[in-house]
Design brief:
single chain, alpha/beta, 10 strands, 37% helix, globular, cell membrane, ATP binding, AAA+_ATPase, ABC_Ni/Peptide_Import
C-alpha cells in the first residue's frame, strides 16, 4: 500500500520556562492511501500536537523528524509549500464547528473560498459548494447556502466544516475529535457521512478520538499514543482481538459492554499500566478482563 502520509521520528517541543519542553517524542505513523487511521490515547498524550504538526498550524512548535505527504517532505519546507497543501493536500476538521467557522461570513462563501483561491470561478465554486452541501445531507442546500453559521444547528455546522475541509478534494482529511461537540445521534450521522465520502473519494483519513466505539465502526487501522509516544499500532480487528500493549488492554477493558455483568467493575487503564510500569519491581497479574469483581 502506498503511504499517503508518513510521519517518522516526529519530535515536537514548545518553549518552556528555562528550556524547550518536548511533548511528542519520536512518533512514527502511516496513513496509507485511502485508509482510515484512528489515533487514540488519553488526554494530553500528544494526538492533536501530532496532527497539527502535519500542517504546521502552531507557530510556537518546534518540529523535528520527517512528515511526508504524498512523498513531499514538509518538515523544513518553505511556508509557501506548507500553505499550498492546506485544503488541497490535506483538509482539517476540528472539534468545535463554532470556532472553526467565521460567524460574520455566509456559510456559502466559506465553503467556496478554498476553490476560489485556487482560481475556480465563483459560479462554479458556488455550484460545487451547493452540490457538496446537498451530498452532506443539508436539506434545501441552495437556499441555505447564504445563511450565517448561527442559523445552523451544531450538526449542520459540522457538515459545513466538513464541506470546507473537503471541497478542494484533498487526498487526506485530518479530523480531530470531529463529533465530540455533537449529541450521540448526530455524531453517528456525521461519522457515517465522513466514512461514505472518504470511501467515494478514496480519501485517507487521520481521525483523532477518545472513543473506542467510534474507532471500531470507522477505522481500518489504529495508532495508540501515550505520553507523547506511539505504544501500539495495528489494523483495527487485530488490535481489538489481541491488544499487545498493557495500555491498549487497559483502554479496551474500560469499554462498557451491554452484555457484561452489571455487578462487575470495569477495568481501568491503571490496572494494566501500573503492572506494566512496575514490571521490574513486582510482577503482579493485571485485573481480569471486564470481570474481576473487587
Ligand atoms: N501550544 C502549546 N504550547 C505548549 N504546550 C502545548 C501546546 N499544545 C499542546 N501542548 C502540550 O502538549 C501535550 C500534548 O497535547 P495534545 O493536545 O496533543 O494532547 P491530546 O492527546 O490531543 O489530548 P486531548 O485528547 O485532550 O486533545 C500536552 O501536555 C499539552 O499541554
Amino acid at each position: 500500500m502506498t503511504a499517503l502520509l508518513e510521519i517518522s521520528g516526529l519530535r515536537v517541543s514548545y518553549p518552556g520556562v528555562d528550556e524547550p519542553v518536548e511533548v511528542v517524542h519520536g512518533v512514527d505513523l502511516v496513513v496509507p492511501q485511502g485508509r482510515k487511521v484512528a489515533l487514540v490515547g488519553e488526554s494530553g498524550s500528544g494526538k492533536s500536537v501530532t496532527a497539527r504538526s502535519v500542517l504546521q498550524l502552531d507557530p510556537d512548535a518546534t518540529i523535528a523528524g520527517s512528515i511526508r505527504l504524498g512523498g513531499q517532505e514538509l518538515v523544513g519546507a518553505a511556508p509557501k509549500i506548507v500553505r499550498g497543501i492546506r485544503g488541497s493536500g490535506a483538509g482539517l476538521v476540528f472539534q468545535d464547528p463554532l470556532t472553526s467557522l467565521n460567524p460574520v461570513m455566509r456559510i456559502g462563501w466559506q465553503i467556496m473560498q478554498p476553490l476560489v483561491i485556487r482560481g475556480v470561478s465563483k459560479k462554479e465554486a458556488r455550484e460545487r459548494g451547493i452540490a457538496l452541501l446537498d451530498r452532506l445531507g443539508v436539506v434545501n442546500a441552495a437556499a441555505r447556502f447564504d445563511d450565517y453559521p448561527h442559523q445552523f444547528s451544531g450538526g449542520m455546522r459540522q457538515r459545513v466544516v466538513i464541506a470546507i475541509a473537503i471541497i478542494a478534494e484533498p487526498a487526506l482529511l485530518i479530523a480531530d475529535e470531529p463529533t465530540t461537540a455533537l449529541d450521540v445521534q448526530v455524531q453517528a450521522q456525521v461519522l457515517e457521512l465522513l466514512h461514505e465520502v472518504a470511501d467515494e473519494r478514496g480519501m485517507g483519513v487521520l481521525l483523532i478520538t477518545h472513543d473506542l466505539a467510534i474507532v471500531a465502526g470507522f477505522a481500518d487501522d489504529v495508532v495508540v499514543m501515550r505520553h507523547g509516544e506511539v505504544v501500539e499500532s495495528a489494523p483495527v480487528d487485530e488490535l481489538f482481538a489481541a491488544p499487545k500493549h498493557p495500555y491498549t488492554r487497559g483502554l479496551l477493558g474500560a469499554i462498557p459492554r451491554l452484555d457484561s455483568d452489571p455487578s462487575v467493575r470495569l477495568t481501568s487503564v491503571a490496572d494494566y499500566v501500573d503492572t506494566f510500569e512496575t514490571v521490574d519491581d513486582e510482577p503482579a497479574a493485571p485485573a481480569a478482563e471486564n470481570g474481576a469483581a473487587r
